Amino acid sequence: MIDNTWAFDLPDKVFTIAQTRGQAILEDYYPNTTWTKDGFRNEKPTFPNIMFTFTMSERGSDLLGEDINGVMLNVQVDITVLKEQTANAVTYISGVVVTEMKRLHFYIEELPFENESTDDLIRYTFRCQRMIGQADTL
After folding, report:
1. Quick check: 37 and 51 in contact, CB under 8 A?
2. What DSSP designation does 99 have?
3. Which among 109, 103, 127 is positioned nearest to 22, based on CA atoms?
């Protein structure tokens, strides 16, 4: 029987692990941090905000082409803070999230950089990826 659900579960698993570990570190300084993988919700956003966006592509199919043996998981992480929380906040939070992604063995494609900041908000973005096989553990 063909079961490729493991591949579709990867974004939720990666997000949950990074959120659980990262929030444990950030709890003392930023207890109201919002973690999301589907953008801002309809309610008023809270800051700091850490948003994950996932894309995947298949790698290493079998000869019959029915099973997914591996995927390249690409992650973009946007970290947004209020300017009143200072640039140090976004740098510290970025460092925590990058460290947690490295603990999950992701390759950092682009280190955090300032992206689309406004008068009220500072936003840093970084991108990472990892090839994950069907038998790999996170």
Report:
1. yes
2. H
3. 103
Per-position b or e across 59-74, b if 16+ CB within 10 A of its CB: eeeeeeeeebebbebb
What distances in angstroms separate CA 31 from CA 7, 27, 36, 67, 78, one per listed residue?
32, 4, 15, 42, 18
Tokens representing 76?
């973009």
Encode pLDDT of 86-122 as tens digits: 768 999 999 999 999 999 999 999 999 988 888 889 9
Give every CB contact of residue 124 below 8 A, 6+ residues apart in sequence.
Answer: 78, 79, 80, 90, 91, 94, 112, 113, 114, 115
What is the CATH number assigned to the segment(s) 5-133? 3.30.2000
Instruction: Check if the beta carbon of residue 16 is closer than 8 Å to that of residue 24.
Output: no
Name the amino acid, one letter, at 40.
F
Strand 49-59 with 34-36, pairing: parallel
